[in-house]
Design a protein that fits this description.
This protein has about 280 residues and is an alpha/beta fold. It folds into two domains: about 150 residues, Rossmann fold (3-Layer(aba) Sandwich); about 110 residues, HUPs (Rossmann fold). Strands 3-2-1-4-5-10-9-6-7-8 form a ten-stranded mixed β-sheet, sandwiched between helices. It starts with a strand and ends with a strand. The relative contact order is 0.15.
Length: about 280
């Protein structure tokens, strides 16, 4: 059985993302492992050695009580969405979130990580300094990041941004496999600056590899790369954006650019990061 790791802090953002984890689990026949990681605060003063054990025991107990109360809430979310049949196990551990996610994903041979991202209103924020970005960077697992204002919708159209490099073929195969599960269409979009010498040779290679797949290939010459991507998302009613993890640096640079129209565009769809 496939496995989905769902790191959670039991916030509203996290509970919203849990619906995507449930839907994905149902589609691919997976179980879900929820992970709650808590960090013990170090006392701000030194002369407490005789109380230190009591302080740690109290903090651990508080986290456990919170955990004990919240786990049934996740089960209720599953039942309310007619997904109560999905196997869910729960892990509570003390440590640092990203480190523990990496360890558990390796130990359990995790197939997907689904995580909510708080405060993501622009694409650039998905890739810059968020916990989700760190998990994307450090885990060799496909990560599905769910922005906080993202309401669940069936995944009907997936956008895969590509440069038509041959190294994008394997990640695109992962995306199309997921698209097959959801019966969704994939749009591949490549944008080059107008001064670039244009060559369609690799597009033909991609078309040959994916000739029996519900996929369309788009190539655009434009200087406003960010604008083209966001317009494409809006006009084509894209439900998910997929990227090859090795191109994340490109996205980081891309979405630091402060272009007026783009920064008002709210990303309310999932971001899929594929290794």
């Amino acid at each position: 059985m496939k496995k989905i790791l769902f790191p959670t802090d039991f916030s509203a953002v996290s509970k919203n993302a849990f619906i995507y984890a449930l839907k994905l689990a149902d589609a691919i026949g997976a179980e879900i492992i929820t992970l709650h990681v808590y960090e013990l605060d170090s006392p701000a003063y030194l002369d407490v050695s005789i109380y230190l054990e009591d302080i740690y025991q109290y903090e651990e107990l508080s986290d456990f009580e919170n955990y004990k109360d919240e786990v049934p809430v996740l089960r209720k979310i599953a039942e309310d969405n007619n997904l109560g049949h999905i196997k869910i196990s729960n892990v509570l551990i003390q440590g640092y979130l990203v480190k523990e996610v990496v360890k558990l994903s390796q130990k359990e041979n995790i197939d997907f990580i689904v995580i909510g991202t708080k405060g993501v209103t622009h694409l650039r924020e998905v890739f810059l300094g968020t916990v989700a970005a760190k998990i994307m960077n450090e885990c060799n697992v496909t990560v599905l990041a769910i922005p906080e204002k993202c309401s669940y919708m069936p995944i009907e159209r997936i956008l895969f941004s590509t440069r038509y490099n041959m190294s994008d073929i394997e990640p695109l195969k992962k995306v199309t496999n997921l698209a097959n599960v959801f019966h969704s269409h994939v749009d591949c979009l490549n944008i080059k600056p107008p001064h670039t010498v244009y060559n369609d040779d690799f597009v033909v290679d991609f078309q040959n590899v994916f000739k029996d797949t519900d996929i369309a290939f788009h190539s655009v010459l434009a200087s406003d790369i960010e604008g083209v991507i966001l317009d494409f998302i809006e006009k084509n009613k894209i439900n998910m954006v997929a990227i090859h993890e090795r191109h994340r640096g490109f996205f980081e640079k891309l979405f630091q650019v402060s272009l007026s129209k783009k920064l008002s565009f709210h990303i309310n769809i999932p971001i899929l990061s594929v290794h």
